[in-house]
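Submission sheet (multi-component)
Chains listed below:
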Amino acid sequence: GEEVAQTPKHLVRGEGQKAKLYCAPIKGHSYVFWYQQVLKNEFKFLISFQNENVFDETGMPKERFSAKCLPNSPCSLEIQATKLEDSAVYFCASSQNYPGGNQPQHFGDGTRLSIL
Amino acid sequence: QQPVQSPQAVILREGEDAVINCSSSKALYSVHWYRQKHGEAPVFLMILLKGGEQKGHDKISASFNEKKQQSSLYLTASQLSYSGTYFCGTDYTGNQFYFGTGTSLTVIP
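Outcome: structure written.
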């Protein structure tokens, strides 16, 4: 598609439950990025993929967060045993090439995750 | 490692100009600028790849001073539609993108 599609738009979970977010990148884009944005509005990098392969996962809280990008499927970000502090807007972005060069990141509309 | 932006917030009257700075403690390879309106996704504005490069789009332009490890975004004759939070972004290591701390810009009539 021509846009990054994120689903769902809103997700409400009780503390301790699992949350799964999806992202379909723009067709032809090789890189996918996940970011977490909390109240301060600052973006925290979580993980990036080059096609199906993890490119960088240094931002991921590894105990409870996991992510995948499988062929012919939307990418996913899963949070096990959610905590109140996981409440945030999660953005996915895709890039034709890596943004260290001359390619911009195109963002989806985000998924607002609320942990009660 | 996150680039630091200044000011944190600015309020302008329509028609006034503003400058937003993005400073890094490490060498910048390239600088991206994005604008995010409240409740929406960030939107790409421009990329500067080389030291000394300047770009413009409508009445928004930017410069990149590689030696000073700094980029500046210039908004001239601001319009109400310019309101939002502006983020710079850069890559230091070749595999992780860092967004700046953000600058909230509010344009009032």
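Remark: Chain B has a mean pLDDT of 89.
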